[in-house]
């Protein structure tokens, strides 16, 4: 089991390198620099700025400089928010995004699997159709439609929850963004669980459990559910990635100062360091998360440990 | 006379399918006495499994059951699950055909055996453990104290089936139902499992319902037998009587379905068509930059043979013996080392793309009639595909003509040539596969388990067909099979393989009458126990 | 299935080739199963309807999608044409009242408005000027002049425009823009899906066909990319290389090819192992023959199914990019752009969000049901 973990970790490191490299070169190759959007700057000042940010050095040198800084935890200053370094911005933004994301993931997992299991146990009845129908809705309606609608209904019309903003981080501010973020994943996980449970309930080893007169809950939970949960666990990795993508929209609409919003602003404002920093952090985070998921999967499925 | 502990009366099982309704069991009656072994025999589609599944309440959700099944007077059909669960797993237990998938891969074996003990006897897992180890010992699993904590995928097929048996015996059941428990296992393992079952039955005094398609097993182990066909019981009675005096035609056909006849050896001066010397096929597995350790699998290890014109060499062995690999290697469908000569020409160095004749003169028929025909081509297209390669100048009408000829030769209606493979039965598909090879007029045909996936009655027809074709076209066959009865009927020379090596070889007569190697002896014993009785039975069955 | 017992191959002349009954291919079986699935058929019909509407609708619509009506900025959706009666009547009345004549009740009849007028003295024909001076009315005239010229009916024309879905913040007809939006979204959906298909199928087929190390490496890349939020990279792409229609669907396709590659590779691998492929090899069929006759036709099924599930994801993705402001450029619009405008205007113009959202949701629903139906039809055990 430990060798498995080490092997996965070893595979992860080159991936991070690749992400950083791709992000770096993509941005540098693209036309337009961070200062193009403002008034044309005096060429002398421009030259000074170039030197300060090392733009005058050849590309490959800049790359290694950046790598070196990264390893020391220095992501560089933000170009558009002049008073802050990227790390400063992350220090405030990252915890917020992580809170939102983990709450959304937990919500999605718990609600999604419950709905999926219920639907699978009552196949082709009203409950089943309801779940499948709602799931299709959840996948189909984009979150940038749901968000303003929820904000309008619960925030403005009913006034039960704040329409936006992070405020002081109280739970009322979290309800709407987390729900919006989680909705599509609830739908996907529900469908996934339902399909997996239906197949598990038809499988031979569940037939054996039934044939041995084991009580229904043992058959469903111990034998069927554990097998059915495996594909859902493998989906957690891509689910996290999808949540990060979704956070961009949700943070923008609800005005939440997380890194998703920084990313969009940085992209539109050509803030090199901020954008790259975001990509690197997100990449690292996702890879680590996938590692954890792989470990979880191996713990659940003994066949995988011996590959 | 004691009362039967299980009685079935008028049992019907129907399934609701998108294309209509399937009436799988059409009103059968059955009795099982305490301590007796009852066999239910039938081919695929006979409904034999569905009948007992209905008794155990295991019918799928799109099926429904009518009729009565009583265990010690208690009606089982329609019994609510909570009460049914007190009977199944405790008083009536079942073991299934596929040990690979019948055990839960995510839990240890010991825990799964303990489950019936925990839920029926109220033991805790700690209390159950010694009993589990005792059960493993009873089914002859070596080192049971360690195996208790193994996962199913760490055990072999035979061991998994033993584990299932242990689970079935845990609560001292009155009835054990065995649904084709040995079909998926190798012949030698089969014999061991059957012996184990017999011994346990005598020791523990339970009734056994044995479902199988193999009459040999019935003859050896059952007291009474029910013969089923298409959902109905066509005949029943004590085994001795059924085998010596079958009354129903279908029973007679089943008994007589063993392939008969022998192949006479070829004359001395028949030229050697295919010469293979010291063939090795090695697979390199594992390794790679993220895989485990690399290791070598010697699928074929130093095998030589010589096939003469008109001859049929039978290659027998169990799974993993390398016989199929050998067949494909000789046809250069797999890379191998060693010398292969065909009609004197060296086959190993030939460029297959230029020397197309190789693929015409040497052909192969595969085992799985369902997988060897391309599902999206019509039968006509499948059969004539070879012509596209080897006789590209033919017009479409010409090809069609040749397709008709080929189909007629294998006794299929040529009007069917625009149909698709899934519209045919297994036996018909195998005929199509044979037609596909014959249309090219080959000299050597490798037959890789051509009858193993077919019912006994169909097997016989295919064997007849192959014999006829061999005579008509002066073909030479390499007949690969694990079914010794068929090999004995088809081949004049036999090679026995085990784990890639040749264990014994000789003329069919010699090898079958007087096997020398211990492995061959074990194979023969496992396959042919009770042969004498069967031959006698067949002789009787053929009386008018 | 009848079997004729014959003793050997018979010689046949050209005339008596036996008739061959038509078989039922897997495609035909699937089509039959699909036809039984009402949801799928209805969905397909809806999609065709929307597609036709989006192609021909803008041409037939009285409002071009980029025409600005400065006097009708952000008007609500309405079946009744604008200006409404409750605006015409007082306006006409006040215009006519300047003529200082007796007025009856104002009536609006389509694009004509009339009011009976009368006076003690014969009506001066020049009073129509009061009407013509108003922006709203023109072609003022007096009809039904009585014999003594003292009463008649003042008639004028009002240009009335119908905005079924209302107008947006710039005064453009939302109905026409929604149709264009549907057209663009469907176009991008199909085109980007083809890009994803092209990349995914070739990648997957190569990986599956070569197998071994090549396959291992290629699939490892897919695994890595799959778990990354690839969207971020594509956003970078789009931001820095500009908002180009072609680039849009290349970018979107570039995100979604991963699943297609996986599916095709899985299919190719399992097909390679199938005996009918080996049988074809044993017959001497070359690689091109095997690919065209055996492998590709058998991959098509899952590919087609996945395609119908891919198109909605692509459309959603394009909408997402448009929402962020990275989508198609003005004056062209897509449903994503419309929705993002609608989301920004939620307080003052609810219809701006509702109609494009409904259109998008309808398309996505229909595609999902069609995809599910296809999946059930092509592989019935996969419920």
Strand and helix map with partners:
The complex is a heterotrimer of chains A (307), B (544) and C (383).
Chain A: H1 2-29, H2 43-52, H3 59-71, H4 86-121, H5 126-140, H6 143-157, H7 171-202, H8 204-211, H9 216-254, H10 259-268, H11 272-300
Chain B: E1 6-17, E2 20-32, E3 37-41, H1 48-55, E4 63-71, E5 74-75, H2 81-87, E6 92-95, H3 99-102, H4 109-121, H5 125-138, H6 144-147, H7 157-169, E7 175-179, H8 187-204, E8 207-212, H9 215-221, E9 224-229, E10 232-238, H10 239-244, H11 249-256, E11 272-285, E12 295-308, E13 312-316, H12 323-330, E14 337-342, E15 345-346, H13 357-361, E16 362-365, H14 379-390, H15 396-409, H16 426-438, E17 444-448, H17 456-473, E18 476-481, H18 484-490, E19 493-498, E20 501-507, H19 508-513, H20 518-528, H21 531-541
Parallel strand pairs in B: 3-8, 3-9, 6-7, 7-8, 13-18, 13-19, 16-17, 17-18
Antiparallel strand pairs in B: 1-2, 1-4, 4-5, 9-10, 11-12, 11-14, 14-15, 19-20
Helix pairs in contact in B: 4-5, 4-7, 5-7, 7-8, 8-20, 11-21, 14-15, 14-16, 15-16
Chain C: H1 26-36, H2 38-60, H3 85-97, E1 102-103, E2 107-109, E3 112-118, H4 128-133, E4 137-143, E5 151-158, H5 174-210, H6 212-227, H7 230-241, H8 245-273, H9 275-283, H10 287-323, H11 335-344, H12 350-378
Antiparallel strand pairs in C: 1-3, 2-3, 3-5, 4-5
Helix pairs in contact in C: 1-12, 2-5, 2-12, 5-6, 5-8, 5-10, 5-11, 5-12, 6-8, 7-8, 8-10, 9-10, 10-11, 10-12, 11-12
